[in-house]
Specification:
The structure is a single chain. By secondary structure, this protein is α/β, with parallel strands linked by helices. The chain has one domain. The chain has 13 helices and eight strands. Strands 4-3-8-7-5-6 form a six-stranded parallel β-sheet, with helices on both faces. A two-stranded antiparallel sheet has the order 1-2. The protein is globular, with a radius of gyration of 17 Å. The model has no long low-confidence stretch (mean pLDDT 91). InterPro entries: TagA_TarA, WecG_TagA_CpsF. Belongs to the glycosyltransferase 26 family. TagA/TarA subfamily. It comes from Bombilactobacillus mellifer. Pathway: Cell wall biogenesis; teichoic acid biosynthesis.
Length: 237
Amino acid sequence: MKQTITILNLPFLNTTNADFKEILKKRLAKHQNTFIVTANPEIAVYAYDHPQYLRTIQQADYITPDGIGIIKASKQLQHPLQERITGFDTLINLLAIANQQQLKIYLLGARPEVIRKTVANITQHYPQIQIVGYHDGYFQEEQPIVEEIQQTQPQIVAVALGFPKQEEFIAKYRQASPAIWIGVGGSFDVLSGTVKRAPQLFQKLHLEWLYRFLAHPSRLNRFMTLPRFLKLVKQHQ
């Protein structure tokens, strides 16, 4: 079985959530610097349109299929990916590992009130985790944040700045600590309780996108990326 399936020049990891969690455990144990991109169709299309961003995320150690659209595309290419691996689920797996092993983490991104609630909820639900620093996503200077990461040496750095900013930040500064660096998009909104994740039924039916649209109809333009994504995949078969 292929370890990766290439879709629009992006090598997507072909594994399960459970197996990926074991991979992450091993890399944490070895202090291996790791860059994870959790790519949905929107990110894939943006990378297609922006060659510099494509080169940035091609540097990642793992690109995971975050979105049912990626799974559909792999089937269209007759190389079906085993499972959808979302940024949120990967973050939850990392928090579970960190709690079990009393690891250090650093959180970056989201609005000030969201990051504070995220820190409070992680502290409550994962009491063995050491949160060695955090900062909201509204900063002017990157250097103080990078220096804090260098000083505290977290084993996990979760960056919720949205694409392309989060991946660009990670690619630029990942050598600041031999950590797992992961872009997690809007995951802090969910972790903080600010935004509800789709109910289990929507998740099982792969209709999280529909739930998000019904909750935020203003996101219509973002959802319209999917038809173009599938068209591009077909054109590049």
